[in-house]
Specification:
The protein is mostly helical.
Length: 160
């Protein structure tokens, strides 16, 4: 186990909770939510070594292939990822299923955790604009964008 990657996971999970607490304190999400088991699958045999090698080792084709399998495992083990809710049909176009609100809140806290790491709490808005083509159910997209709008307003109000 790499101390560097383990430290990253610990910090990431703490920042996800910090983001969720801020969202709750600013009345953007309706309930206090704890994500204590957030990304626990990153510690599994299916993910840990591949993530560690990919982010903290030498990237080779084999490492990239292992990471791709680990990422696939991760998104299918963690319903706070939008990809978890995309249904691939055999004979029809893919379909985005509506995400339950609790997972939308966790997804946004997950995205925003990286802003908490850098200290630039507004970078989530640029990130979302660049990734807006993600496959989301119409209601999920409305909820996501509504939350982001409320976050922007709360941050603006804090800086007055």
């Amino acid at each position: 186990m790499s101390q560097e990657y383990t430290s990253y996971i610990t910090t990431h999970v703490a920042n996800v909770q910090k983001a969720a607490d801020w969202l709750y304190e600013h009345q953007i999400i309706p309930e206090k939510i704890s994500f204590g088991l957030h990304d626990v699958s990153k510690y599994t045999a299916e993910e840990y070594k591949a993530y560690d090698d990919y982010f903290y080792g030498k990237r080779t084709k084999e490492v990239e292939k292992a990471f791709n399998y680990a990422w696939l495992h991760h998104i299918h083990a963690n319903p706070h990822h939008w990809q978890y809710w995309v249904l691939k049909h055999d004979d029809e176009p893919e379909e985005a299923l509506e995400m339950p609100e609790q997972y939308v809140y966790e997804m946004i806290a997950d995205w925003w955790s990286f802003s908490h790491k850098t200290g630039n709490l507004r970078e989530i808005f640029d990130w979302y604009a660049k990734h807006k083509d993600m496959v989301l159910h119409e209601n999920t997209r409305k909820l996501v964008e509504g939350i982001l709008d409320k976050m922007k307003k709360a941050l603006d109000d804090e800086n007055k």
